[in-house]
Amino acid sequence: MKKSLSMLAAVSAVALTVTACSSTPEETAKPSAAAATEAPKATAAATAAATTDTDMGLKPEAGAKLVVWDAPDQKAFIESMAKQFEAKYKVPVKFEEVNPPDQPAKLTADGPAGVAADVTVIPHDNLGKMVSANLYLPNDVFADQTKKENAEAAVQGATFNNTLFGYPKSVETYALIYNKDLVKTAPKSFDDVVAFAKTYNDPGKNKFAFMFDIGNFYFDYAFLAGPGGYVFGKNGTDKTDIGLNNDGAVAGAKFFASLKKDVLPVKSGDVTYDIKKGLFTSGKLAMDLNGPWTILDYKNAKINIGVAPIPTINGKPAVSFAGIKILGVNAYTKYPNAAKLFAHFATSQAAQLENFKISGQLPSNKAAAEDATVKNDELATGFLQQLKTSQAMPSIPEMGNIWTPMGAALGDIWNDGKDPKATLDNAVKQIKDTNAATK
């Protein structure tokens, strides 16, 4: 991750998501069940295509029946897939509501006990933890298809220790969401943001040009990574190589701190998801650094919204975190063949396109991304553009040790003006100490 892991080889060669999909701290900043868009039902063509995807000769076990866990906003999609799957394979599929961030802990307890779902859906940064606990079967039968059909970063997110385990379903990141009635043209650089803030900000009236979740490293990472910071080396796999206090990260932290004076003169604790939403929907906040999970709230408030890439930082593109939603087959399932078939079936080209139409998720499948329904969606395109310079979050278990020290460090830099280099050095030492203690 020393260099940006490009989420797109080209705009025409990738598919991405517009709903939440990470168990990292940004989960606290979004509603749990809001679909990103209100989309029409899947077309008959998509439904037909979903039932003709190759099954590589794999046959379900006699008497097989499956349970699938997914988020509430995915119920319509999973139930549609279940109906089609049963019609083709004569295997009934039951949907159970479990949010993806909650599934790793639940599978850890329920998998060995034999009471977990056969197919689960997790944020990809949990994959290392799941595989290390022997909770997932490899994606072996459909590995070649999965690798060929999905965006490279999605495949990387579904892979651990050079073995493909997941079935990529969708990808996401955050971007600049702006009120078109207040900002006619999305700013290209943070210099533009600073200039606009000088004319627009009025803290006494709660008017702000730009806001982001200051104390949340998920969003803060964009400021550190653009200048050259990174989490783990070797594409996020080397826990001994932490680049969150290198020269690039320190330069990014200094820029991050400057925004308090120039753009957002508040304490980090004064900015929450609900506060931002209230200001944006009341027409007081002009621009919000946020993810696609907030789109429905802003649409319902009748705000004329646009989505654009995060403005450049000192001439360099902002590098945001990206997350991949993946399906995984429970290692304790009684019906591994049927479960693998469903995981593949529900992440096929046509299935992912159907999910975009039903619940707003952009597909990780490259061919589905070429569909006009996806390419002609203005808001989806904005997130897609940001994903060009996004990095997939590392999926090794040590990623869980990053969030608290980095969030605290950046909070200290913002709130108390602490020295960026010394503060980041201390945070990285904490991370290394925790990694060493949990070998």
From TrEMBL:
Residues 1-20 form the signal peptide. One of its GO terms (molecular function) is maltose binding. Keywords: Cell membrane, Lipoprotein, Membrane, Signal, Sugar transport, Transport. It is a lipid-anchor. GO terms for biological process: maltodextrin transmembrane transport; maltose transport. PANTHER family: MALTOSE-BINDING PERIPLASMIC PROTEIN (PTHR30061), MALTOSE_MALTODEXTRIN-BINDING PERIPLASMIC PROTEIN (PTHR30061:SF50). The keyword GTP-binding does not apply. Belongs to the bacterial solute-binding protein 1 family. It is found in: Cell membrane. One of its GO terms (cellular component) is ATP-binding cassette (ABC) transporter complex, substrate-binding subunit-containing. This is Maltodextrin-binding protein. It comes from Paenibacillus roseopurpureus. It comes from the Bacteria.
